[in-house]
Amino acid sequence: MINIVRLSLNRTWKKLTLKQAMVLFILSFVFINEYVVYVIQEWRWAKVRPLRHSEDEVRLLLVGDPQIQGYNGEPPTIIGSITRWDSDRYLRSTFRQASNYVKPDAVLFLGDLIDEGSQAQDEHYSEYVDRFKEIFKSPTNVENIYVSGDNDVGGEGGDFKTKVKVQRYEKYFGNSVAVQKVKFLDFIKADYDFITSWNDTADKAKHLVKLLSGRFRIILNHHGILERFKRELYPRSEWRKGMKYKYKDKWISQPIVKMFSPNFIFSAHLHLPTIHICTDCTELDKEKYQWEGNTLTDVPDQIKFDLNSPNLVEIIQPTCSYRMGVPEMAYGVAVIDKNGALEYTLLWLPSRYIQLYLYLALTICVIVVVLFKLCISKIWPNSRKQTFYGRTP
């Protein structure tokens, strides 16, 4: 039976014309590039703890710097439409794949949701939001927690943060400074950018402290926190009291660490996976605290932490968008037990640029073959139609 099938396939293959063979090859190439590659990549993902459907566990999917593309930064022709479509499609398909793999209780969007969000006109902004929420669809039982970034509300370089930008962002994504609860966890959206210091941010932070009731507290911020000077994280009065030293600087420092006493921090912005570990964040007797920073490009299957530890850990989530110009993209996964055990891993994504370069190479090859075929037909206009193997049918 096997020999009969093999013989039939051989006969069919030998009857293919060059045009038919090219079409079959192109379709196979697209199928591998757009489906098989992602299946293979998922096989390589670290195993996530089996789903328990329990109040004693929280499963988190972390999304860093998706930055869906706008109109100003893209070519105004059909090329711009194609590049936006491809970027959206990549984010949509990889997010759906990661979400199905993790089955999270909550999705944490760690800022820079829209690439041109801070500078967009209102009509474009509304369209960007619709695109964003269509790309990152989650089941109704999944909590979506949005953190604002400098691309969303300003705050980096000459793109200043204004109340108008913040109000527009909050209209679509909720309060930028807030506490959101998921089971036994309090997620604190600090909205601290270290560039624009607002007096009312400290007042909002004081209000948030009264809302904290969870067993563990996790700060969510777009910009990294632990790499800053200590005086930028504590109330200035406590800084002066602890150091007995008057330091005159431009920062209206927010009491982030001291007020919230967080057990963990998730941030983004750098586009690269990084971990910061601080061993003495609660001490006030020195200008800098001791922290270690390492990249997580070679992260093992799981990194385990204890939220009850006196050390404060900050994980900086890499981007999930290939448009950010970094070679490696990933979604993050964190599974947290009620006893404080946290397991973190990264779901690495395929390189879209390599796939696009392969499409470019395929296009060039097809053009060369077509031109060669046209040249042959000009030289030998009476040549008979050839099969793929060079035989006449």
Automatic annotation (TrEMBL):
It comes from the Eukaryota. Pfam families: Metallophos. Keywords: Membrane, Transmembrane, Transmembrane helix. The keyword Membrane applies. GO terms for molecular function: hydrolase activity. One of its GO terms (cellular component) is endoplasmic reticulum. InterPro entries: Calcineurin-like_PHP, Metallo-depent_PP-like, PGAP5/Cdc1/Ted1. Residues 59-273 form the Calcineurin-like phosphoesterase domain. The chain crosses the membrane at residues 21-40, 356-376. It is found in: Membrane. The keyword Transmembrane applies. It is a multi-pass membrane protein. GO terms for biological process: GPI anchor biosynthetic process. This is Calcineurin-like phosphoesterase domain-containing protein. It comes from Owenia fusiformis.
